[in-house]
Design a protein that fits this description.
This protein is an alpha/beta fold and 238 residues long. The chain has eight helices and nine strands. The protein has two domains: 151 residues, P-loop containing nucleotide triphosphate hydrolases (Rossmann fold), CATH 3.40.50; 68 residues, no CATH class. Helix 5 links the parallel strand 6 and strand 7.
């Protein structure tokens, strides 16, 4: 059973109700689906539709079996969203409270994540004093604090150093082995080609190709091409 199934006829904003059209896909347990496309293709709008942040959506989005009142997903945004007057640990406490984590579960998970991303020594510092890379690490820690069924990740590699990228990919791999699904928007196509199980290629608000790398190659008529070359061929002029 898919962790999310999306069948979106159209979605957008007031005055622009059809920014994306005919977006149909699913993410299964253990899958890492790469959401790729040029700027303005509709990637962010697709993510906002999944998160329920758009005023105009025609279609249906079902998380898990569709019976739970709350979808069990975690969202890791492209740009850090933090409170200037809270410390790192206070951010984690606030998130844990919103997620309903027990104190024991929260502390064990938080300390594990802080150690992994080498943030333990600054846990009581205000996040406003952190570099952009450190703030992005905080978003990863917040995203992984609760073991979700689905991770929605938007451009996660921006601002991360190579070691943090490796830690992030190891975390994703571990969560996938646990059975979580991942939808990841990224422009880092060489990395996406190596780690994603399938792809959604968007252009001008619609899916122009989807499936495995072999499926994408077949759709663009380039049987030996890299994901980058397929991307270039299918989005030329957009």
């Amino acid at each position: 059973m898919a962790v999310v199934q999306a069948s979106i006829e159209s979605a957008g904003y007031k005055g622009r109700a059809e920014v994306i059209r005919d977006i149909h896909f699913s993410v299964g347990p253990g899958e890492l689906v790469g959401l790729i496309g040029p700027n303005g293709a509709g990637k962010s709008t697709t993510i906002k539709a999944l998160l329920g942040l758009l005023p105009e959506v025609k279609g249906e989005i079902v998380f898990g079996n569709g019976e739970d009142s709350e979808p069990h997903y975690a969202y890791i945004p492209e740009h850090p969203v933090l409170y200037e007057d809270l410390t790192l640990w206070e951010h984690l406490e606030l998130a844990a409270s919103a997620m309903g984590l027990s104190d024991e579960e929260f502390r064990e998970r938080a300390e594990e994540l802080l150690a992994r991303y080498r943030l333990t020594e600054v846990r009581d510092h205000l996040t406003s004093s952190f570099s952009k890379g450190m703030q992005q690490k905080i978003m990863l820690v917040l995203g992984f604090l609760h073991r979700a069924e689905l991770y929605i990740v938007d451009e996660p590699f921006i601002g991360l150093d190579p070691r943090a990228i490796r830690d992030f990919l190891d975390m994703l791999n571990g969560e996938r082995k646990r059975g979580a699904g991942v939808l990841m928007s990224t422009h880092v196509l060489d990395t996406a080609e190596k780690i994603c199980s399938s792809f959604l290629l968007l252009s001008e608000g619609s899916i122009v190709a989807q499936g495995t790398l072999e499926d994408i190659r077949g759709a663009c008529g380039l049987p030996e091409a890299s994901l980058f070359d397929c991307f270039a061929a299918m989005t030329e002029g957009t």
